[in-house]
Amino acid sequence: MSKISNNPLLKGVSGMLGKTIVFREVRGKVVMSNWPKKAARPTPHQIIMSKRFTDAIKYAKVAMQSTSLKEAYAAAITPNKFTAFHVAQTDAMTAPVVHSINTEFYNGTPGDELTIHATDDFRVDTVCIKIQDPYGMLIEEGIARRRSIREDEWEYTVSQVNEKVIGSKIIVSVRDLPGNVATLESVL
Question: Which helix (H) or strand (E) covers residue 23, if one does?
Answer without folding.
Answer: strand 21-26
